[in-house]
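Page 47, continued from p. 46.
Same chain as before, 175 aa.
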Amino acid sequence: MTKDVFDCMRESHSVRNFLQQDIPEPTLTRILEAGCWAPSAGNLQPWYFYVIKNQEIKRKVAEACFEQNQIENSPVSIVILADPARSNEKYGERGAQLYCLQDTAVAAENMILAAYGLGISTCWIGAFDEIKIQQAVEAPPRLRAVAILCLGYSNEADRPAKERLRIGEVTKIIH
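Result:
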């Protein structure tokens, strides 16, 4: 049974301590499918998902992320990479510099929401050395790392819903 998407948005939060329990393959597949269902400019889908279960590779990725140990602690980490050249073919420099990153970030968010809906906790990591990440996962140089998601069953106490700015503080309606 999955949660309502609005509950997922309101309740999900970054988890850094995970139980050492495998994620069932059908569940992991559904999370990856959610990434594939993300919208993208021109439907180019300029993303790649490198799913890491190997402890040695996770250690290298954690090093490239300035020793963020939740990577090694999580049963699965996903390195999410963009292919700027794919977006460049249709949209030029703006596609390569912006659209592919936006598209790939949306895919990552889809995966976070799907994971939470399926009872899997996540942690988005954006601080890393891109070159070291590429090397750790043996990605071709044309791909650019955008985010790393740690996935697993939480080993942390439940938290109250996170505080957010009010709609009126971040919204301007133009008539």
